[in-house]
Design brief:
single chain; about 250 residues; alpha+beta; Aminopeptidase; eight-stranded mixed β-sheet; 7 helices; 11 strands
């Protein structure tokens, strides 16, 4: 598999594992909108580096589309953005921010932690536990619930509880074809540094392998050193990076 083909397979898996509410295509430019919840689901990206013709005009159409939907325009720049796209963004003064890394690895077998439970990702019990751990407000939680309902691939909300039965760590695992994708990995603030992130990831990795995946992929903001250290220790390695741009 070529490098660009590998990137495209990871992009399509992560896009489908973390959907938007509405989408629009201009050639192979994909616009995604989800009431402003997460940048990934509220941005434009290109899926083919050769599809960069009339980039300035198409970029303006995407700006108009986002404004029409009461959203601030964002462009997610991956290695699949062609030189014409990059030139149009530069010429339009689109400022880069928030670099992230896409990490991947073959799936193996991992220790199953005690006290783990799996829910459907849209299950209210998992959703309430996760939003409490992550400190998500009610409006964002309602949008998240809608997005989880839209995931077509098999998914599981992974939850660990402490000895008192209180939620202590959570993650969302999605088996997007042969690629396991992981989102919303969170550990309760007072329990960090105790190996719970590793435990909940072990459970999530095992679940996606059982669901038919043979590779794993995760996206991490580049300045999140603790998360990068955790995923490197699990066997993940960097495949490529992406960043966002705004006018």
């Amino acid at each position: 598999m070529s490098e660009l083909s590998s990137i495209l397979s990871l992009e399509t898996a992560t896009i489908s594992s973390w959907p938007a509410i509405t989408t629009a295509l201009d050639g192979l430019w994909l616009a995604r909108l989800a009431r402003g919840y997460t940048k990934r689901s509220n941005s434009v990206q290109c899926l083919d580096p050769d599809d960069d013709g009339d980039a300035a005009g198409r970029l303006q159409r995407m700006v108009d589309l986002f404004l029409r939907n009461d959203r601030d325009p964002l462009f997610r720049v991956t290695p699949l953005a062609g030189p014409g796209v990059l030139a149009a963004l530069d010429a339009g003064g689109w400022a880069p921010f928030e670099e992230s890394r896409v990490l991947a690895m073959p799936l193996g077998e991992y220790p199953e932690p005690d006290g783990v439970r799996f829910y459907d990702g849209a299950d209210r019990n998992w959703l309430e536990a996760f939003t409490g751990l992550a400190g998500i407000d009610r409006r964002s939680a309602a949008t998240l619930a809608l997005l989880l309902d839209l995931i077509a691939w098999p998914q599981a909300g992974v939850l660990l509880r402490d000895s008192g039965g209180e939620p202590v760590a959570a993650a969302l695992a999605v088996a997007a074809g042969d690629i396991g994708c992981y989102h919303n990995v969170v550990v309760r603030t007072d329990s960090r540094g105790k190996g719970l992130g590793r435990a909940v990831m072990h459970a999530a990795l095992n679940w996606t392998k059982t669901a038919g995946a043979n590779r794993a992929a995760i996206q991490v903001v580049s300045d999140n050193a603790p998360a990068l250290g955790l995923y490197a220790s699990l066997g993940f390695s960097e495949v490529y990076r992406y960043h966002y741009r705004r006018p």
